[in-house]
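Internal ticket - ligand job 496, nicotinamide-adenine-dinucleotide:
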Amino acid sequence: MKRVGHLINGSEVVGGNRCQDVYNPSTGEADKHVLLATKATVEEAISSAQAAFPAWRNTPAIKRARVMFKFKDLLEQNSDKICQLIGEEHGKIAHDAAGELQRGIENVEYACCAPELLKGEYSKNVAPDIDSWSEFQPLGVVAGITPFNFPVMVPLWMYPMAIVCGNCFVLKPSERDPSSTLFIASLLKKAGLPDGVINVVNGDREAVDTLLNDERVKAVSFVGSTPIAEYVYVTASSNGKRCQALGGAKNHAIVMPDADMDNTVNQLLGAAFGSSGERCMALSVAVAVGDVAGDALVSKMKEAMSNLKVGPYDDPDNDFGPVITREHQQKIIDHINHAEQQSAEIVVDGRFPEIAGYERGFYIGGTLIDRVTPDMDSYHAEIFGPVLQVVRVQSMQAAMDLIDAHEYGNGTCIFTRDGEAARYFSDHINVGMVGINIPLPVPVAYHSFGGWKRSLFGDLHAYGPDAVRFYTKRKTITQRWPSAGIREGVLFSMPS
Ligand code: NAD
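stdout (C-alpha coordinates):
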Protein backbone atom coordinates (compact mmCIF):
# COMPACT_ATOMS: atom_id res chain seq x y z
CA MET A 1 0.00 0.00 0.00
CA LYS A 2 1.27 3.48 -0.84
CA ARG A 3 2.22 5.56 2.20
CA VAL A 4 1.53 9.29 2.31
CA GLY A 5 4.01 11.00 4.60
CA HIS A 6 5.05 14.52 5.52
CA LEU A 7 7.12 17.31 3.96
CA ILE A 8 9.68 18.63 6.40
CA ASN A 9 12.58 20.91 5.56
CA GLY A 10 12.09 20.28 1.85
CA SER A 11 12.16 16.46 2.08
CA GLU A 12 9.53 13.79 2.19
CA VAL A 13 9.39 12.05 5.57
CA VAL A 14 7.73 8.62 5.71
CA GLY A 15 8.79 7.20 9.07
CA GLY A 16 6.57 6.18 11.98
CA ASN A 17 3.93 3.56 12.60
CA ARG A 18 0.78 5.55 13.32
CA CYS A 19 -1.29 5.62 10.16
CA GLN A 20 -4.81 5.51 8.78
CA ASP A 21 -6.43 4.31 5.56
CA VAL A 22 -7.14 6.80 2.78
CA TYR A 23 -10.21 5.81 0.76
CA ASN A 24 -11.25 6.36 -2.79
CA PRO A 25 -14.87 7.34 -2.01
CA SER A 26 -15.97 6.52 -5.56
CA THR A 27 -15.09 2.84 -5.14
CA GLY A 28 -15.16 2.58 -1.35
CA GLU A 29 -11.70 0.96 -1.44
CA ALA A 30 -8.62 2.08 0.50
CA ASP A 31 -5.35 1.77 -1.34
CA LYS A 32 -3.18 4.21 0.62
CA HIS A 33 -2.10 4.87 4.19
CA VAL A 34 -1.54 8.34 5.53
CA LEU A 35 1.01 8.65 8.32
CA LEU A 36 -0.23 10.36 11.45
CA ALA A 37 2.50 12.59 12.83
CA THR A 38 3.65 12.15 16.40
CA LYS A 39 4.40 15.11 18.64
CA ALA A 40 8.11 14.67 17.83
CA THR A 41 7.47 14.84 14.07
CA VAL A 42 5.42 18.02 14.40
CA GLU A 43 8.12 19.54 16.60
CA GLU A 44 10.68 18.70 13.92
CA ALA A 45 8.52 20.57 11.37
CA ILE A 46 8.24 23.58 13.69
CA SER A 47 12.02 23.55 14.22
CA SER A 48 12.57 23.47 10.48
CA ALA A 49 10.25 26.47 10.02
CA GLN A 50 11.93 28.30 12.89
CA ALA A 51 15.38 27.73 11.38
CA ALA A 52 14.26 29.00 7.96
CA PHE A 53 12.65 32.13 9.37
CA PRO A 54 15.58 34.60 9.82
CA ALA A 55 16.75 34.34 6.21
CA TRP A 56 13.24 34.27 4.74
CA ARG A 57 12.15 37.24 6.83
CA ASN A 58 15.06 39.24 5.38
CA THR A 59 14.37 38.21 1.79
CA PRO A 60 12.95 41.24 -0.06
CA ALA A 61 9.20 41.06 -0.62
CA ILE A 62 9.66 41.21 -4.40
CA LYS A 63 11.82 38.06 -4.29
CA ARG A 64 9.26 36.29 -2.12
CA ALA A 65 6.57 37.31 -4.60
CA ARG A 66 8.62 35.92 -7.50
CA VAL A 67 8.37 32.48 -5.92
CA MET A 68 4.59 32.89 -5.98
CA PHE A 69 4.59 33.84 -9.67
CA LYS A 70 6.46 30.60 -10.47
CA PHE A 71 4.23 28.64 -8.11
CA LYS A 72 1.15 29.87 -9.97
CA ASP A 73 2.63 28.64 -13.28
CA LEU A 74 3.42 25.25 -11.76
CA LEU A 75 -0.11 24.93 -10.39
CA GLU A 76 -1.50 25.58 -13.86
CA GLN A 77 0.94 23.19 -15.53
CA ASN A 78 0.06 20.43 -13.07
CA SER A 79 -3.68 21.03 -12.94
CA ASP A 80 -4.67 17.64 -14.41
CA LYS A 81 -2.61 15.77 -11.86
CA ILE A 82 -3.92 17.91 -9.00
CA CYS A 83 -7.55 17.41 -10.06
CA GLN A 84 -6.92 13.67 -10.38
CA LEU A 85 -5.55 13.51 -6.81
CA ILE A 86 -8.51 15.53 -5.51
CA GLY A 87 -10.92 13.20 -7.32
CA GLU A 88 -9.30 9.99 -6.09
CA GLU A 89 -9.42 10.92 -2.43
CA HIS A 90 -12.26 13.43 -2.16
CA GLY A 91 -14.57 12.16 -4.92
CA LYS A 92 -15.01 15.56 -6.55
CA ILE A 93 -15.83 15.52 -10.29
CA ALA A 94 -12.96 16.85 -12.45
CA HIS A 95 -14.72 20.10 -13.48
CA ASP A 96 -15.53 20.84 -9.84
CA ALA A 97 -11.94 20.09 -8.80
CA ALA A 98 -10.74 22.43 -11.55
CA GLY A 99 -12.96 25.18 -10.13
CA GLU A 100 -11.52 24.59 -6.66
CA LEU A 101 -7.98 24.80 -8.02
CA GLN A 102 -8.77 27.99 -9.93
CA ARG A 103 -10.14 29.69 -6.81
CA GLY A 104 -6.98 28.61 -4.99
CA ILE A 105 -4.74 29.99 -7.75
CA GLU A 106 -6.48 33.35 -7.43
CA ASN A 107 -5.18 33.53 -3.86
CA VAL A 108 -1.67 32.89 -5.15
CA GLU A 109 -2.15 35.72 -7.66
CA TYR A 110 -3.18 38.04 -4.85
CA ALA A 111 -0.12 36.96 -2.86
CA CYS A 112 2.01 38.06 -5.83
CA CYS A 113 1.01 41.64 -4.88
CA ALA A 114 3.04 41.38 -1.64
CA PRO A 115 5.41 44.29 -2.34
CA GLU A 116 2.41 46.57 -2.81
CA LEU A 117 0.46 45.12 0.13
CA LEU A 118 3.41 45.40 2.51
CA LYS A 119 4.40 48.99 1.68
CA GLY A 120 3.16 50.20 5.03
CA GLU A 121 2.01 53.68 6.01
CA TYR A 122 4.15 56.80 6.14
CA SER A 123 3.61 60.29 7.58
CA LYS A 124 6.22 62.93 7.08
CA ASN A 125 6.63 65.73 9.58
CA VAL A 126 4.17 64.55 12.24
CA ALA A 127 5.98 67.22 14.29
CA PRO A 128 8.80 69.52 13.24
CA ASP A 129 11.57 67.31 11.80
CA ILE A 130 9.84 64.15 12.97
CA ASP A 131 8.61 61.42 10.60
CA SER A 132 6.54 58.39 11.50
CA TRP A 133 5.70 55.18 9.70
CA SER A 134 4.03 51.85 10.30
CA GLU A 135 5.47 48.67 8.85
CA PHE A 136 4.06 45.18 8.83
CA GLN A 137 6.47 42.57 10.08
CA PRO A 138 6.05 38.79 9.85
CA LEU A 139 5.08 36.86 12.96
CA GLY A 140 7.52 33.94 12.65
CA VAL A 141 6.24 30.37 12.51
CA VAL A 142 2.52 30.16 11.74
CA ALA A 143 0.30 27.10 11.31
CA GLY A 144 -2.70 26.12 9.23
CA ILE A 145 -5.15 23.29 9.94
CA THR A 146 -7.52 22.48 7.08
CA PRO A 147 -10.63 20.39 6.31
CA PHE A 148 -11.24 17.59 3.81
CA ASN A 149 -13.73 19.37 1.58
CA PHE A 150 -11.32 21.74 -0.19
CA PRO A 151 -7.95 19.98 0.09
CA VAL A 152 -6.37 22.42 -2.39
CA MET A 153 -8.25 25.70 -2.11
CA VAL A 154 -8.39 26.14 1.66
CA PRO A 155 -4.65 25.58 2.24
CA LEU A 156 -4.10 28.10 -0.61
CA TRP A 157 -6.22 30.59 1.33
CA MET A 158 -3.52 30.46 3.97
CA TYR A 159 0.11 29.75 3.17
CA PRO A 160 0.73 31.82 0.00
CA MET A 161 -0.11 35.02 1.88
CA ALA A 162 1.56 33.88 5.10
CA ILE A 163 4.75 33.08 3.21
CA VAL A 164 4.94 36.22 1.08
CA CYS A 165 4.51 38.22 4.27
CA GLY A 166 7.78 36.63 5.44
CA ASN A 167 6.49 33.90 7.76
CA CYS A 168 7.36 30.20 7.72
CA PHE A 169 4.47 27.77 7.70
CA VAL A 170 3.46 24.39 9.13
CA LEU A 171 0.35 22.98 7.46
CA LYS A 172 -1.74 20.16 8.91
CA PRO A 173 -4.17 19.13 6.15
CA SER A 174 -7.09 16.75 6.47
CA GLU A 175 -5.95 13.18 6.97
CA ARG A 176 -8.84 12.02 4.79
CA ASP A 177 -7.52 13.40 1.47
CA PRO A 178 -3.89 14.43 2.01
CA SER A 179 -2.20 13.72 -1.35
CA SER A 180 -3.15 16.79 -3.43
CA THR A 181 -2.13 19.10 -0.57
CA LEU A 182 1.22 17.38 -0.19
CA PHE A 183 1.90 17.34 -3.92
CA ILE A 184 1.18 21.06 -4.23
CA ALA A 185 3.49 21.90 -1.35
CA SER A 186 6.26 20.01 -3.16
CA LEU A 187 5.76 22.36 -6.15
CA LEU A 188 6.87 25.26 -3.99
CA LYS A 189 10.36 23.80 -3.81
CA LYS A 190 10.43 23.72 -7.62
CA ALA A 191 9.26 27.34 -7.58
CA GLY A 192 12.39 28.22 -5.60
CA LEU A 193 11.07 28.36 -2.04
CA PRO A 194 13.90 27.67 0.42
CA ASP A 195 13.60 24.46 2.44
CA GLY A 196 11.77 24.80 5.73
CA VAL A 197 9.65 27.80 4.73
CA ILE A 198 6.72 25.43 4.19
CA ASN A 199 6.30 22.12 6.02
CA VAL A 200 3.36 19.74 5.84
CA VAL A 201 2.54 17.29 8.60
CA ASN A 202 -0.30 14.86 8.19
CA GLY A 203 -2.03 13.78 11.32
CA ASP A 204 -4.88 13.88 13.75
CA ARG A 205 -5.52 15.46 17.11
CA GLU A 206 -1.97 14.76 18.34
CA ALA A 207 -0.56 16.90 15.53
CA VAL A 208 -3.15 19.65 16.07
CA ASP A 209 -2.55 19.78 19.82
CA THR A 210 1.20 19.99 19.31
CA LEU A 211 0.74 23.02 17.03
CA LEU A 212 -1.67 24.64 19.48
CA ASN A 213 0.63 24.19 22.47
CA ASP A 214 4.09 24.85 21.05
CA GLU A 215 5.11 28.37 21.98
CA ARG A 216 7.18 28.78 18.79
CA VAL A 217 3.93 28.83 16.76
CA LYS A 218 2.73 32.43 16.79
CA ALA A 219 -0.57 32.18 14.91
CA VAL A 220 -3.04 29.50 13.84
CA SER A 221 -5.49 29.57 10.94
CA PHE A 222 -8.11 26.86 11.15
CA VAL A 223 -10.96 25.83 8.85
CA GLY A 224 -13.27 22.93 9.72
CA SER A 225 -16.35 22.05 11.74
CA THR A 226 -17.62 24.38 14.47
CA PRO A 227 -16.89 22.20 17.53
CA ILE A 228 -13.24 21.79 16.48
CA ALA A 229 -13.00 25.45 15.41
CA GLU A 230 -14.12 26.51 18.87
CA TYR A 231 -11.68 24.12 20.53
CA VAL A 232 -8.81 25.36 18.37
CA TYR A 233 -9.70 29.02 18.97
CA VAL A 234 -10.01 28.64 22.75
CA THR A 235 -6.82 26.58 23.06
CA ALA A 236 -4.69 28.71 20.75
CA SER A 237 -5.92 31.97 22.27
CA SER A 238 -5.34 30.80 25.82
CA ASN A 239 -1.79 29.95 24.75
CA GLY A 240 -1.32 33.55 23.60
CA LYS A 241 -1.50 32.84 19.88
CA ARG A 242 -3.32 34.86 17.28
CA CYS A 243 -6.10 32.65 15.92
CA GLN A 244 -8.78 32.67 13.24
CA ALA A 245 -11.00 29.58 13.25
CA LEU A 246 -13.63 29.20 10.56
CA GLY A 247 -16.39 26.72 11.33
CA GLY A 248 -19.50 25.12 9.91
CA ALA A 249 -22.55 26.53 8.20
CA LYS A 250 -26.20 26.19 7.35
CA ASN A 251 -26.82 28.55 4.46
CA HIS A 252 -30.34 29.70 3.69
CA ALA A 253 -31.66 31.07 0.40
CA ILE A 254 -34.81 33.17 0.55
CA VAL A 255 -37.03 32.58 -2.47
CA MET A 256 -39.36 35.57 -2.85
CA PRO A 257 -42.68 35.28 -4.69
CA ASP A 258 -41.39 37.53 -7.48
CA ALA A 259 -38.22 35.50 -8.10
CA ASP A 260 -37.47 34.20 -11.59
CA MET A 261 -38.29 30.63 -10.57
CA ASP A 262 -36.56 28.81 -13.45
CA ASN A 263 -33.34 30.69 -12.80
CA THR A 264 -33.71 30.18 -9.05
CA VAL A 265 -34.07 26.42 -9.51
CA ASN A 266 -30.98 26.29 -11.73
CA GLN A 267 -28.96 28.26 -9.21
CA LEU A 268 -30.19 26.19 -6.28
CA LEU A 269 -29.40 22.92 -8.05
CA GLY A 270 -25.71 23.74 -8.37
CA ALA A 271 -25.43 25.38 -4.96
CA ALA A 272 -27.21 22.61 -3.05
CA PHE A 273 -25.89 19.52 -4.82
CA GLY A 274 -22.56 20.58 -6.37
CA SER A 275 -19.66 18.85 -4.64
CA SER A 276 -22.30 16.58 -2.98
CA GLY A 277 -23.27 19.51 -0.75
CA GLU A 278 -19.89 19.24 0.99
CA ARG A 279 -19.19 22.96 0.79
CA CYS A 280 -19.32 25.37 3.70
CA MET A 281 -21.14 27.75 1.31
CA ALA A 282 -23.58 25.11 0.00
CA LEU A 283 -27.18 26.29 0.07
CA SER A 284 -28.90 23.68 2.20
CA VAL A 285 -32.14 25.48 3.09
CA ALA A 286 -34.54 27.22 0.71
CA VAL A 287 -36.96 29.48 2.55
CA ALA A 288 -40.00 30.00 0.34
CA VAL A 289 -42.00 33.14 1.06
CA GLY A 290 -45.68 32.24 0.58
CA ASP A 291 -47.19 28.95 -0.50
CA VAL A 292 -47.43 29.93 -4.16
CA ALA A 293 -43.64 30.34 -4.26
CA GLY A 294 -43.21 27.19 -2.14
CA ASP A 295 -45.35 25.02 -4.44
CA ALA A 296 -43.71 26.36 -7.61
CA LEU A 297 -40.23 25.89 -6.16
CA VAL A 298 -40.82 22.32 -5.00
CA SER A 299 -42.51 21.15 -8.20
CA LYS A 300 -39.89 22.73 -10.51
CA MET A 301 -37.08 21.49 -8.32
CA LYS A 302 -38.44 17.96 -8.30
CA GLU A 303 -38.64 17.97 -12.07
CA ALA A 304 -35.13 19.38 -12.48
CA MET A 305 -33.68 16.87 -10.03
CA SER A 306 -34.82 13.96 -12.18
CA ASN A 307 -31.84 14.81 -14.43
CA LEU A 308 -29.25 14.96 -11.61
CA LYS A 309 -26.45 12.44 -12.04
CA VAL A 310 -24.39 11.16 -9.13
CA GLY A 311 -21.49 8.79 -9.76
CA PRO A 312 -17.73 8.29 -9.75
CA TYR A 313 -15.43 11.29 -9.94
CA ASP A 314 -13.82 10.28 -13.21
CA ASP A 315 -16.99 10.39 -15.31
CA PRO A 316 -17.36 14.00 -16.45
CA ASP A 317 -21.06 13.43 -17.20
CA ASN A 318 -21.79 13.19 -13.49
CA ASP A 319 -22.97 16.30 -11.68
CA PHE A 320 -21.45 15.29 -8.38
CA GLY A 321 -19.60 12.41 -6.79
CA PRO A 322 -19.69 10.44 -3.56
CA VAL A 323 -19.41 11.84 -0.03
CA ILE A 324 -16.16 11.54 1.85
CA THR A 325 -16.56 8.40 4.04
CA ARG A 326 -18.98 5.59 4.77
CA GLU A 327 -19.58 7.11 8.24
CA HIS A 328 -20.49 10.43 6.70
CA GLN A 329 -22.81 8.70 4.21
CA GLN A 330 -24.58 7.02 7.13
CA LYS A 331 -24.80 10.30 9.05
CA ILE A 332 -26.56 11.95 6.09
CA ILE A 333 -28.99 9.03 5.80
CA ASP A 334 -29.71 9.36 9.53
CA HIS A 335 -30.56 13.06 9.09
CA ILE A 336 -32.98 12.25 6.25
CA ASN A 337 -34.55 9.47 8.36
CA HIS A 338 -35.02 11.90 11.26
CA ALA A 339 -36.65 14.49 9.04
CA GLU A 340 -39.05 11.84 7.77
CA GLN A 341 -39.84 10.66 11.30
CA GLN A 342 -40.50 14.26 12.31
CA SER A 343 -43.11 14.60 9.52
CA ALA A 344 -41.15 16.42 6.85
CA GLU A 345 -42.00 15.35 3.30
CA ILE A 346 -39.27 13.53 1.36
CA VAL A 347 -40.02 14.75 -2.16
CA VAL A 348 -36.91 13.31 -3.83
CA ASP A 349 -35.19 10.50 -1.94
CA GLY A 350 -31.46 9.99 -2.57
CA ARG A 351 -30.76 7.67 0.33
CA PHE A 352 -29.81 4.59 -1.65
CA PRO A 353 -28.81 5.40 -5.23
CA GLU A 354 -27.88 2.46 -7.42
CA ILE A 355 -24.67 3.04 -9.34
CA ALA A 356 -23.75 0.01 -11.40
CA GLY A 357 -20.19 -1.15 -10.80
CA TYR A 358 -19.72 1.15 -7.79
CA GLU A 359 -21.88 -0.56 -5.21
CA ARG A 360 -19.35 -0.01 -2.40
CA GLY A 361 -18.89 3.73 -3.11
CA PHE A 362 -20.12 6.32 -0.60
CA TYR A 363 -22.99 7.73 -2.66
CA ILE A 364 -26.03 9.76 -1.71
CA GLY A 365 -28.33 11.00 -4.45
CA GLY A 366 -29.81 14.49 -4.54
CA THR A 367 -32.51 14.72 -1.87
CA LEU A 368 -35.31 17.29 -1.57
CA ILE A 369 -37.22 17.61 1.70
CA ASP A 370 -40.28 19.86 1.91
CA ARG A 371 -42.19 21.22 4.91
CA VAL A 372 -39.17 21.28 7.20
CA THR A 373 -39.77 23.31 10.34
CA PRO A 374 -37.27 24.98 12.68
CA ASP A 375 -38.01 22.56 15.51
CA MET A 376 -36.66 19.61 13.51
CA ASP A 377 -33.19 18.23 14.28
CA SER A 378 -32.27 18.07 10.60
CA TYR A 379 -32.99 21.81 10.27
CA HIS A 380 -30.41 22.70 12.90
CA ALA A 381 -27.67 20.27 11.86
CA GLU A 382 -25.12 20.98 9.18
CA ILE A 383 -25.94 17.90 7.11
CA PHE A 384 -23.05 18.49 4.69
CA GLY A 385 -24.53 16.31 1.97
CA PRO A 386 -26.62 16.66 -1.22
CA VAL A 387 -29.78 17.49 0.69
CA LEU A 388 -31.94 20.58 0.13
CA GLN A 389 -34.55 21.35 2.76
CA VAL A 390 -37.50 23.65 2.08
CA VAL A 391 -38.99 25.74 4.87
CA ARG A 392 -42.18 27.69 4.14
CA VAL A 393 -42.88 31.06 5.75
CA GLN A 394 -45.42 33.81 5.05
CA SER A 395 -43.23 36.94 4.92
CA MET A 396 -39.73 38.08 4.09
CA GLN A 397 -39.29 39.28 7.68
CA ALA A 398 -40.16 35.78 8.96
CA ALA A 399 -37.54 34.35 6.59
CA MET A 400 -34.94 36.82 7.87
CA ASP A 401 -35.83 36.09 11.50
CA LEU A 402 -35.29 32.40 10.82
CA ILE A 403 -31.84 33.04 9.36
CA ASP A 404 -30.89 35.36 12.19
CA ALA A 405 -31.96 32.81 14.80
CA HIS A 406 -29.74 30.06 13.38
CA GLU A 407 -26.44 29.48 15.19
CA TYR A 408 -24.45 29.67 11.94
CA GLY A 409 -23.96 32.81 9.87
CA ASN A 410 -21.64 31.87 7.02
CA GLY A 411 -23.49 32.63 3.77
CA THR A 412 -26.99 33.45 2.61
CA CYS A 413 -28.75 34.65 -0.49
CA ILE A 414 -32.02 36.09 -1.73
CA PHE A 415 -33.71 35.38 -5.06
CA THR A 416 -35.91 38.31 -6.03
CA ARG A 417 -36.57 40.94 -8.69
CA ASP A 418 -37.21 43.58 -6.02
CA GLY A 419 -34.15 45.78 -5.50
CA GLU A 420 -35.57 47.40 -2.40
CA ALA A 421 -36.18 44.04 -0.73
CA ALA A 422 -32.69 42.85 -1.70
CA ARG A 423 -31.09 45.99 -0.32
CA TYR A 424 -32.97 45.70 2.97
CA PHE A 425 -31.95 42.05 3.20
CA SER A 426 -28.24 42.61 2.58
CA ASP A 427 -28.19 45.57 4.96
CA HIS A 428 -29.88 43.86 7.91
CA ILE A 429 -29.21 40.11 7.73
CA ASN A 430 -26.91 38.80 10.45
CA VAL A 431 -24.64 36.77 8.15
CA GLY A 432 -21.09 37.38 6.89
CA MET A 433 -21.40 36.70 3.14
CA VAL A 434 -24.53 37.66 1.23
CA GLY A 435 -25.67 36.93 -2.32
CA ILE A 436 -28.36 38.74 -4.29
CA ASN A 437 -29.45 36.31 -6.99
CA ILE A 438 -25.99 34.78 -6.46
CA PRO A 439 -26.24 31.38 -4.78
CA LEU A 440 -22.62 30.91 -3.67
CA PRO A 441 -21.38 34.38 -2.70
CA VAL A 442 -17.79 33.27 -2.08
CA PRO A 443 -15.75 36.50 -2.07
CA VAL A 444 -13.01 36.83 -4.69
CA ALA A 445 -9.39 36.60 -3.56
CA TYR A 446 -8.95 40.35 -3.11
CA HIS A 447 -11.84 40.56 -0.66
CA SER A 448 -11.83 38.39 2.46
CA PHE A 449 -13.87 35.33 3.39
CA GLY A 450 -15.63 34.74 6.69
CA GLY A 451 -18.92 34.06 8.36
CA TRP A 452 -20.52 35.51 11.46
CA LYS A 453 -21.86 33.94 14.65
CA ARG A 454 -20.60 30.39 15.21
CA SER A 455 -19.21 30.16 11.69
CA LEU A 456 -16.06 32.07 12.64
CA PHE A 457 -14.13 32.50 15.87
CA GLY A 458 -11.70 35.41 15.75
CA ASP A 459 -11.60 38.91 14.36
CA LEU A 460 -10.01 38.69 10.94
CA HIS A 461 -11.45 36.82 7.99
CA ALA A 462 -9.54 34.43 5.74
CA TYR A 463 -7.46 35.49 2.71
CA GLY A 464 -7.60 38.89 0.97
CA PRO A 465 -6.73 42.08 2.84
CA ASP A 466 -7.56 40.54 6.23
CA ALA A 467 -4.91 37.87 5.65
CA VAL A 468 -2.20 40.52 5.27
CA ARG A 469 -3.17 41.85 8.70
CA PHE A 470 -3.52 38.38 10.21
CA TYR A 471 -0.06 37.22 9.13
CA THR A 472 1.78 40.42 10.10
CA LYS A 473 2.21 42.58 13.15
CA ARG A 474 2.25 46.32 12.94
CA LYS A 475 5.28 48.20 14.15
CA THR A 476 5.17 52.00 14.23
CA ILE A 477 8.41 53.93 14.21
CA THR A 478 8.79 57.62 15.01
CA GLN A 479 12.10 59.19 14.04
CA ARG A 480 14.10 62.39 14.36
CA TRP A 481 17.70 63.04 13.42
CA PRO A 482 18.74 66.09 15.42
CA SER A 483 21.32 68.13 13.61
CA ALA A 484 24.26 69.49 15.54
CA GLY A 485 22.64 72.88 15.97
CA ILE A 486 19.33 71.76 17.48
CA ARG A 487 19.14 70.42 20.99
CA GLU A 488 15.89 70.31 22.98
CA GLY A 489 15.61 70.58 26.68
CA VAL A 490 14.05 68.02 29.00
CA LEU A 491 10.30 67.63 28.39
CA PHE A 492 8.04 66.20 31.11
CA SER A 493 4.67 66.78 29.47
CA MET A 494 3.11 64.44 26.88
CA PRO A 495 4.69 65.30 23.47
CA SER A 496 2.14 66.98 21.23
P1 NAD B 1 -13.18 18.69 10.88
O1 NAD B 1 -13.48 19.73 11.89
O2 NAD B 1 -13.54 17.29 11.18
O3 NAD B 1 -11.61 18.68 10.56
C1 NAD B 1 -10.91 19.85 10.27
C2 NAD B 1 -9.46 19.70 10.73
O4 NAD B 1 -9.46 19.51 12.15
C3 NAD B 1 -8.77 18.49 10.11
O5 NAD B 1 -7.45 18.84 9.79
C4 NAD B 1 -8.81 17.46 11.23
O6 NAD B 1 -7.71 16.58 11.22
C5 NAD B 1 -8.79 18.31 12.50
N1 NAD B 1 -9.52 17.67 13.60
C6 NAD B 1 -10.60 16.87 13.52
N2 NAD B 1 -10.99 16.48 14.75
C7 NAD B 1 -10.13 17.05 15.62
C8 NAD B 1 -10.01 17.02 17.05
N3 NAD B 1 -10.85 16.33 17.82
N4 NAD B 1 -9.02 17.73 17.61
C9 NAD B 1 -8.16 18.45 16.86
N5 NAD B 1 -8.21 18.49 15.50
C10 NAD B 1 -9.19 17.81 14.90
O7 NAD B 1 -13.85 19.18 9.51
P2 NAD B 1 -13.98 18.36 8.16
O8 NAD B 1 -15.01 17.30 8.33
O9 NAD B 1 -12.64 17.99 7.65
O10 NAD B 1 -14.53 19.51 7.20
C11 NAD B 1 -15.89 19.83 7.08
C12 NAD B 1 -16.26 20.99 7.96
O11 NAD B 1 -15.46 22.11 7.66
C13 NAD B 1 -17.71 21.43 7.77
O12 NAD B 1 -18.26 21.74 9.01
C14 NAD B 1 -17.57 22.69 6.92
O13 NAD B 1 -18.62 23.61 7.03
C15 NAD B 1 -16.32 23.25 7.47
N6 NAD B 1 -15.72 24.18 6.53
C16 NAD B 1 -15.83 25.49 6.82
C17 NAD B 1 -15.32 26.42 5.94
C18 NAD B 1 -15.43 27.88 6.23
O14 NAD B 1 -14.78 28.63 5.54
N7 NAD B 1 -16.18 28.31 7.20
C19 NAD B 1 -14.68 26.00 4.77
C20 NAD B 1 -14.58 24.65 4.51
C21 NAD B 1 -15.11 23.74 5.42
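Auto-summary: The first strand starts at residue 2 and ends at 4. The chain has two domains: 2-247+455-477, 251-436.
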